[in-house]
Design goal:
Number of domains: 2
Structural class: alpha/beta
CATH superfamily of the largest domain: Ureohydrolase domain
Number of strands: 13
Radius of gyration: 20 Å
């Protein structure tokens, strides 16, 4: 255990229901424990515990399944290795924070777009000149969320709703500009600032759906790269702080009705009324999506910009995507 006693190293086989006093399990398959020592030197701002384990890469899927079995969130540190979507048997909503370029032989982005088990996808922080136009076309044809770096820089909060909806988040540290991440594979002068990456880490920690968080694109042997090691450690710290301070909010829960403010936007005589819900405490936003087939209403995370779009007389693209998704034949 580290000097702050919030980080405990355990064997992968020890992951069990007894670990529920921890907020997350860090699964490091890089084969190097330098990051553990850097994490030990960071001070948590609230009272929480993190479990840390170092299984082999061939035990990754089994270790993730163990965490799921006991209701534990997990962070997977992959180093240079790119996560293999097919072998991990993932399904649901997924967010990818990357510049758009691919690292190594395994092509992550095509695997995501071609996987029928991925029901929703958001690509966050990409740079247009690094994004294969054919893949960007598929992303747009499927009405997936895509936030290019320039748009994200104007308003980082735009990344929060898709991250909040995501079961899995993948972060390529190469999305950070080279002056903040000296070991960048792309050596790009442009990219996320280190502070922006850390804020995104906090959003990931505050996700209401997250199961597993994958971090890759950094040297596995970080002991010779103190700046990059510190960046990854601080990214994980911000994630943990977001997770520790997260409040599980559910606008469908009638018992908490007073905690939310409902706003109805009418789009004209022949238009669709769109109902927005915002939390009085956290400021989070949701949209109400009619599920016509089941005679129900579903709530999807959104941003205040979606609300302002509706107020200007336009139907938000996020509303249209989920309306079509829930009501398709």
């Amino acid at each position: 255990m580290g000097k702050n006693k919030f980080l405990e190293q355990i064997p992968a086989a020890a992951i069990s229901g007894n670990c529920r006093d921890g907020i997350v399990v860090i699964i490091n398959v890089t084969g190097n424990n330098t990051l553990f020592r850097y994490l030990e030197n960071l001070y948590p701002q609230s009272n929480y515990k993190i479990y840390y384990t170092e299984p082999g890469i061939d035990q990754l899927r089994e270790t993730i399944e163990q965490c799921r079995q006991f209701g534990l969130k997990s962070v997977v540190l992959l180093g240079e290795k790119v996560p293999d979507i097919q072998s991990l048997n993932l399904h649901g909503f997924l967010s990818l924070i990357s510049s758009g370029g691919e690292i190594g032989e395994y092509k992550l982005l095509p695997s995501i777009l071609e996987n029928p088990e991925i029901s929703g996808f958001a690509h966050i922080g990409y740079q247009t000149y690094r994004y294969d136009p054919a893949l960007l076309k598929i992303t747009r044809e499927k009405s997936f969320d895509e936030l290019r770096l320039g748009l994200l820089r104007k308003d980082l909060t735009l990344a929060e709703p898709p991250i909040r909806n995501s079961d899995y988040v993948f972060t390529d540290i190469n999305s950070v500009r080279v002056c903040d991440f000296p070991e960048s594979y792309t050596k790009s002068p442009n990219g996320l600032y280190a502070e922006e990456l850390c804020q995104l880490g906090r959003y990931i920690g505050m996700s209401l759906s997250l199961k597993t968080f994958f971090v890759y694109g950094f040297p596995s042997d970080l002991q010779n790269y103190p700046v990059s090691c510190q960046l990854v450690a601080e990214f994980i710290w911000h994630f943990a702080e977001g997770l520790a301070s997260n409040v599980m909010e559910n606008p469908t829960n009638a018992d908490n009705e007073d905690s939310f403010l409902r706003k109805i936007v009418s789009l004209g005589q022949d238009g669709q009324d769109i109902i927005f819900v915002t939390s009085r405490s956290s400021g989070r936003w949701w949209m109400e999506i009619p599920d016509i087939k089941n005679g129900d209403n579903l709530y999807v995370a959104c941003s205040n910009s979606d609300y302002f779009t509706a107020c200007s007389g336009e139907i938000p693209l996020r509303w249209l995507y989920f309306y079509q998704k829930f009501n398709s034949n």
